[in-house]
C-alpha cells in the first residue's frame, strides 16, 4: 500500500461538457475546488455567506437543481408533469440521452412514471416489463446501480434486459433509488447512448436530483391537487440523525407508513414556517407530538 | 514509543477477519471496530465518517453513540479534523482542542465543551481513493495519547475501509460508490428505527438502539435488516419492542 491515495473530494472539478443557457446554475452545480487542494487560484463566489464552504456548496447544488427543474417548460400540473420536468433537467445536467422516473410502492409495484422523451419512456418501461434491470435492482438493494457500459457487464446479470436495451441503442444506465432510509418512493434512471462512467461531479449532481425528487414527491403527497411550482416545494434536504429519529417517532405516533410520516412532518414545517431541524428537535425532545387523525 | 499491546491488536485483527465473511452487517462491523480501536489506544471516543458523494462527510459509527458525540461528528461534515484528513488524505495528529478555535471555529469549542482535549483523524483509504475518516478523541491535554501508535490507527482505518467491500473481488469503481451509498442509507434506516422503538416503547433513542441490537443478536439477524423490517412492518416493530 505504498501509493499516495487521491485526496477526498469535498468539492468537484469543472465538467468538460458544454451547456446551454443554464451555465450560471450549472457553474454552481460544479463548485470550485479549494485553492489549497488544487494548487491553483480559484475565484471566490461572493454570494456565499459565512456558512462553511462544503455546506454552501451542497445547498447551492440542491438550489441549482431546483432552478434547473423550474426552468423546464411546465406541462400538466400533475405529478407526472413535475417528474417529466425533473427528467428533462437531469438529462441536460448529466449529459445524458434521457432519464426516467418511476414511483414505486415498497413491494415494488410501479405507480406513476415519467421520462424526458418517448425513447426514454420506452427504456424506463422495459425494466418493468422484463422484471429486471438496474432500476429494479437499485430499488430492491436500496443503493445506486451504476453501469457505465452495458456491453462490458456480466452477461448473466440481466440476461433479458441487457441485450434488449443495447439493441435499442442504450450503452450506459445509472439508477438511483429515491429513498430516505426505510422510506422508498421509486427510482431515477439516467440513460446514455455512449459508454462511460459518471464523473464525480455528475454523480454528486445525480444524487442531488434524487434528493430533490424525493422531497418533491413527499411534498406532493401532502399537497395533492393543490398544484404549486417546484419552488414551493423547497424545504432543504436535511441530513441529521435527530431528523431521522424524529421520522421514526412520528411514524409510530401517526400509525402510518414512514413515507407518510415524512410527508406530514414536511407539511407541518412548511405550514409553521419552521425548519425541519427545529421540528425534529422538538419531536425528539418530546415537546411536539403528531396526533392521529380521527377516523 | 508504543505501548499498544500486541496481543490485543492481534485479537482485534482476528475478530475483524472473522467478521468479514458473507453475512456480516456493516454498521455493526464499523461499530465494533471503533469500539475496539478506542479500547486499544485508551481513547475517550472513536468515530467514523464516510463521504456521501455530494460533498459532505456523514457519521457512520462510533465507539459510543451518545447524542453529544454524534452531534460532534455531524459538525465535522463541514469543518474539523475528519474533513481535513479526508481532503488532504493525510492523518491529523495530536491537535490540542483548547488551542484549535482558529482552525475549527465551530467544531473545537463544541469538542472541548463535550470534555475532549485532543483529537486525531485518519483518512480511510481504499485503493486510490479516500472515502472517509476515522476520528479519535482523547482527554489527555495537548499531546500523544498514552500508547498511541499512528501506523496502527491508520491500519485500523484501512481495515474499516476494507470492511466496506462486501465482496472479495471488487472489479468496478462503481461498486464502491454503490456500497457507500448503501451504507449511508442503512445508517439512516437505523436512526429511523431508533426513533420508532423509542416512541413505541417510551425509551430514549440510545436505549432503543440497545433494544434493536439485542433483538438482532438473539435472532441471529443483521442489525440493518432488523432496522429496515421494523420501520416498514408494524408487526416486526411490535415483536422487537416486546422482547
Task: Put the structure in a nutshell.
The complex is a heterodimer of chains A (295) and B (243). Chain A is an alpha+beta fold and 295 residues long.
Question: Can you offer a commentary on this structure?
Answer:
The complex is a heterodimer of chains A (295) and B (243). Chain A is an alpha+beta fold and 295 residues long. Among the domains of chain A are: 63-222, 2-Layer Sandwich (Beta-Lactamase), CATH 3.30.450; 241-284. Chain A contains 11 helices and 5 strands; from the N terminus they run ααααββααβαββαααα. Chain A has a 5-stranded antiparallel sheet, sandwiched between helices. The longest helix of chain A has 23 residues, at 200-222. The relative contact order of chain A is 0.10. Mean pLDDT of chain A is 79; it is low at 1-6, 8-55 and 225-233. With 243 residues, chain B is an alpha+beta fold. Chain B has 2 domains: 6-166, GAF domain (Beta-Lactamase, 2-Layer Sandwich); 185-242, no CATH class. Chain B is 53% helix and 15% strand. Chain B has 10 helices and 5 strands, in the order ααββααβαββααααα. Chain B has helices at 6-19, 26-41, 67-75, 81-88, 107-113, 150-163, 173-201, 205-218, 223-232, 234-242; strands spanning 45-51, 57-62, 92-96, 118-126, 129-138. Chain B has a 5-stranded antiparallel sheet, with helices on both faces. In chain B, β4 and β5 form a beta hairpin. In chain B, α2 runs antiparallel to α6 (150-163) and α8 (205-218) packs across α9 (223-232). The longest helix of chain B is centred in the last third of the chain and has 29 residues, at 173-201. Chain B is globular, with a radius of gyration of 18 Å. Chain B starts with 5 loop residues before the first helix and ends with a helix. Mean pLDDT of chain B is 85; it is low at 167-171. Classes of the chains: A alpha+beta (295), B alpha+beta (243).
